[in-house]
Amino acid sequence: MHRIAVIPGDGIGPEVIEQALLVLDKVSSKFGVRFEYIFIDAGGCAIDKYGVPIRDEDLELVKKCEATLLGAVGGPKWDGLPGNLRPEQALLKLRGGLKVYANLRPAVLYDELKDSSPLKKEIVDRGIDILVVRELIGGMYFGPKGREVKDGDEAAYDTEVYSKSEVRRIAKVAFEAARKRKKKVTSVDKANILESSRLWRETVEEVAKNYPDVELSHMYVDNASMQLVKDPSQFDVILTSNMFGDILSDEASMIVGSIGMLASASLGEGKIGLYEPIHGTAPDIAGQDLANPIATILSAAMMLRYSFNMEDAAKAIENAVKIALKEGYRTRDIYTENCKLVGTKQMGKIICENI
Amino acid sequence: MHRIAVIPGDGIGPEVIEQALLVLDKVSSKFGVRFEYIFIDAGGCAIDKYGVPIRDEDLELVKKCEATLLGAVGGPKWDGLPGNLRPEQALLKLRGGLKVYANLRPAVLYDELKDSSPLKKEIVDRGIDILVVRELIGGMYFGPKGREVKDGDEAAYDTEVYSKSEVRRIAKVAFEAARKRKKKVTSVDKANILESSRLWRETVEEVAKNYPDVELSHMYVDNASMQLVKDPSQFDVILTSNMFGDILSDEASMIVGSIGMLASASLGEGKIGLYEPIHGTAPDIAGQDLANPIATILSAAMMLRYSFNMEDAAKAIENAVKIALKEGYRTRDIYTENCKLVGTKQMGKIICENI
Ligand SMILES: [Mg+2]
Ligand SMILES: [Mg+2]
C-alpha cells in the first residue's frame, strides 16, 4: 500500500489527474498493489476555498505521503493578487516543504510525433533525448526579494543565491543520471557575468572529479537557448539553475513537439518525490475534454519508478502510451493530418486498455 | 566629419570590423561625408596590453566620440581571470559609461536565407520580423554581487534590481519603435514569481496608457522561449529585461538562420549609440577569413541611421547586403547547396561594390 498525495489544482489539472488516476487504478489491479489517494487542494482553488495557496495542515499531510502527484496550478483569475497569495506560491511551498531540490525533465522526441516538432526534419532526424536537471529550491525564485523607494523612485529586487552545498547535490544528481545515459553533462550558467554562476561552475568542476567517466562541458545560457534550436542532438544531460532551467526546459519541451507529452520528477533525499506534468493550467481549454493527459500519466509512471521502485509498472505505462501513439491517437495539441483526434478521456481510456 | 570610436576587440572582431570600415570608406566617398576613426583597445587584447578590460582614459575617449562601432570581446584565453578582469567587463563598462540603456536587436528572416533557419518551412513561411528591445544597463548583470560564507558553506549572489524610472524609459523605446512597425509590444517577465518582474509589468502598463494605438500583451519568459520556436510570426516588438533579453534575443537570432547576420544598436539619451554585431568572438574560426562580416556591416548601417541621421546611406548598405545574398554569395555559417562560398574579405568587397 502506497499513500499518494493527489493535487489536481486548477484549469486542466483536475482533468488530466483524473486520467492518471484511472491509469494507476489499472496498474493497481494488474500489478496487485494498492494505492491510497489523499486529495489536497492547492493553487487557485485553495485560494478560493481557504484564502491561501496551500494550508499549512495540508502541506503537513503531503509531507506524510510517500509521493505527490500534481496536475497544475494558477490562472488569470488570480493574477491580480499580491505575490505571497499567488497560486504558484503553492508550488514553491510544496517544493520547499518536500525539499525536492532536483527537477528531472526528460525531453524525448517520439518517432510518431516527429512532425509535431517545429524544427526541420534534418535536425529532428538526428534525434532528441535530453534530460534537463534543474535545481528547484534555490536561486532567484527563492532568494530575498522586496521593494524599496530611493529618491522617490520605487524599485524592486530579487536575489539569485547559490551555496556550494546546493550546487554540489544537484550536480551529483546530474552526473549520476548521465552515467545511466550517454555520459555527457552540459552545465549551463552565465559565468562570464554572474558571480553565482562562477561559484556554480567551480563547484560543478569539483563534483566532476568523482565522475571521470562522464564528459563535462560548460555553456552560457544565451548560447544554450540557441544550441537547443540549432542542434538539440548534441545534448544528453543539461545541468542548470532554477531560473535558467525553467526557461531552457520549456524550450526543450517545445522542440520535441508538445509540452503535453512531457513529465517531470522532483526528487529530494531518499525516495520522496513530487511528480507533475511540465505544462501549465491552460485555462483557455479547461473543462472541454481537450487537454492532453499523457504528460500527467507519464509523471505517474516516473512516480512508480523513482518513489515505489516499480520499474515494470512504469515501463508498462510508457509502453501503453507508445502504443496509443503508434495506433494514431492524438489529442488536439499533437494532432497532425490522418491521425485520430481524441479527447482527454478517450486518450486516458485507450492508454488504460493498453496496460 | 563624424568621430567614431572603433573597438575591434578579440577573436573574429578585428576581421569583421575591417570589412565594416571598408564599407564606411565607400559610404564616405559616395556620400561625401568624412569619418574619423579612433581605435580603442578593449576586451582580452586590452587585458594583455594593459592588464584591464578597458582603461579609464580609453573609456573617456570613447565618450567623446559621436558613436562607437565594436567587433566582439572575450575568449577562453581569459576565462580563468577573476570577474572584474574579464573581457566582458569592457562591454559592461562601455554600456554603463555611455549610458546606453536600450539595446535594439532586429531578428529578420531574409527570403534568401529561409533554408538556414532551423525551423520548419511552414513556420518560417509565416515570416519573422522581430525587434527585441532589451534593457541593457540594469538588472542582474549590474546589480550588487558577491560571495559570503555561512556555516563554512561558501555562497555567491547576484541581484536583479529594477526601478520604475529604468523600466519606464526602456518601455518608451519599445512603444515608440512599435509605432513605426506593427504596433504590437510583447513585454516578457516572470511576474508570477519575481518581485522585480511585477514592478516591471505595472510600470509597462502605466507607460502603455500613453500609447493607446499600440497593443500590449505580457508573456512569461519560459513561455516566450517556447513561443519563439513555435510561432515567431506572432511577435513584433519584444520588450524585456537585461538578462531575459540576453537569452531571448540570442534565441531569436538563431531562428532566423544565422547570428552572423544580425546587427544591434544600443542607444542612450540623444544621438549617442554603441553599434555591434550580436555574435561573439568565435575564437575557433578567428583569423581564418571564415567569419561573416554582415552583422558588423549592418551595425555600421544602424550607426548611420541612428547616430548620424544618414538614412540614405544606411539603406544603401542594407540594400548592398541584400544584393550580395540574392547573387548567392554566402560565408560558411549561412552556406547552403548551390550557393557561392566566400570568405570574410570577399563578402566585404562584394558588399562595397554594391553600394
Ligand atoms: Mg516553466
Ligand atoms: Mg548574449
UniProtKB/TrEMBL annotation, chains A, B:
Pathway: Amino-acid biosynthesis; L-leucine biosynthesis; L-leucine from 3-methyl-2-oxobutanoate: step 3/4. One of its GO terms (molecular function) is 3-isopropylmalate dehydrogenase activity. Its cofactor is Mg(2+); Mn(2+). Keywords: Amino-acid biosynthesis, Branched-chain amino acid biosynthesis, Cytoplasm, Leucine biosynthesis, Magnesium, Manganese, Metal-binding, NAD, Oxidoreductase. It comes from the Bacteria. Its EC number is 1.1.1.85. NAD(+) binds at G75, P76, K77, W78, D79, G80, L81, P82, G83, N84, L85, R86, P87, E88. SUPFAM superfamilies: Isocitrate/Isopropylmalate dehydrogenase-like (SSF53659). Signal peptide: none annotated. Binds 1 Mg(2+) or Mn(2+) ion per subunit. Its main location: cytoplasm. Residues 3-351 form the Isopropylmalate dehydrogenase-like domain. The keyword GTP-binding does not apply. Mg(2+) binds at D222, D246, D250. Substrate binds at R95, R105, R134, D222. It is found in: Cytoplasm. InterPro entries: IsoCit/isopropylmalate_DH_CS (IPR019818), IsoPropMal-DH-like_dom (IPR024084), Isopropylmalate_DH (IPR004429). Gene3D superfamilies: Isopropylmalate Dehydrogenase. It catalyses: (2R,3S)-3-isopropylmalate + NAD(+) = 4-methyl-2-oxopentanoate + CO2 + NADH. The record marks Y141, K190 as: Important for catalysis. Homodimer. Belongs to the isocitrate and isopropylmalate dehydrogenases family. LeuB type 1 subfamily. Catalyzes the oxidation of 3-carboxy-2-hydroxy-4-methylpentanoate (3-isopropylmalate) to 3-carboxy-4-methyl-2-oxopentanoate. The product decarboxylates to 4-methyl-2 oxopentanoate. This is 3-isopropylmalate dehydrogenase. It comes from Anaerocellum danielii.
